Amino acid sequence: MDPLGLQSIPSRTLKVRPTTVNRPRSQVGLQRARLRSLRYSESEKVEWETVETLGPDIEDRHTLVQLARMTGNAYALPDRENWYEIEPKWNNSFPFGWEDDQDGFRGHAFVSDDQSTVILAIKGTTLLGPTSKKDKFNDNLLFSCCCARVDISWIFSTVCKCYARHWRCDESCLSDALIQDSLFYSIGVDIVNNLTTLYPSSNIWLVGHSLGGALASLLGSTFGLPSVAFESPGERLAATHLHLPLPPPFPGNTASASVPVTHVYHNADPIPQGACTGIVSPCTHAGYALETRCHLGKSIIYDTVSRFNWQVDVRRHPIKEVITTVLEEEGEWEDGREVPIALAEDDCVDCYKWEYFENDVSLE
Known about the structure:
Elements: E1 16-24, H1 27-40, E2 48-56, H2 61-73, E3 92-96, E4 107-111, E5 117-122, H3 132-143, E6 168-170, H4 171-177, H5 184-198, E7 203-209, H6 211-223, E8 227-230, H7 236-241, E9 261-266, H8 282-285, E10 298-302, H9 304-307, H10 319-327, E11 343-344, E12 355-357
Parallel strand pairs: 5-7, 6-12, 7-8, 8-9, 9-10
Antiparallel strand pairs: 1-2, 3-4, 4-5, 10-11
Protein name: triacylglycerol lipase
GO molecular function, one term: phospholipase activity
Main location: membrane
């Protein structure tokens, strides 16, 4: 019996499709260029290579359901009641980050039975639990405009000291705060490096929900790996603060739209839309400054407000809601499609009130 009341998955196969990506020829070279830009404001050329690989078919509903279920499993251990059933060929998995209760970066790597594909599923934010403190710290550092300093009414502690009054923020200070070895992005770089060493001939994909989805996107952009992020806050500004070099754009696309990242979210969830803000919002009350809304790659947006007559509500954010109510819903969403078309968020702007500058002496 399924304790979550979820039906068993149909006997179908996760679909793949040919995917063209631009990858850095050397991770050492990319990280050197990133840190040189961050520390010295100097540019260094990154060499890219165009690679043909196999990525997930994000136009196939069953494939998205499977990836979302793996993403949900990043929050659990096998055989627990909140573990989602997935295709048998993916039953070979190993956990990471669960050894230490205080380690926030955790999840599972799912390996196909022929080892042709490895899917790294990264856990998102846990509100209550041993990882919640680190989760919140990374959330507020990555998705706030300036150190989780929202306005004068903000009563929670900030995560860095880069605020310079009057909606001004020290860019170099903010970037320095994001390169700590203990931050999830840095930990993720090490884990993906290890995976590419263990499985040099395998296709590696990254998936995650919320904070985990943003990390999957940032890491996928770093390594040139196909990534799918569910209900993720906007991570494009975080990529800028990380000084993450983006690949050369494909024809007809911007650089940010050319990374191999697909965001999947619905419009009744305020978090990926940067709308869980303001002094009366539940995110603010809980001490989260989730202000950004612009995403890398392309986004699949489900119109649940119209289809289900939902109100925008943070309670629509959990991965279970996305799996059982949105992705597993049969039928067409738009123009005869089971999955809405993925589009770039080219005109999106984050933190328009803020001015970012370099090395100001007037910091608090």
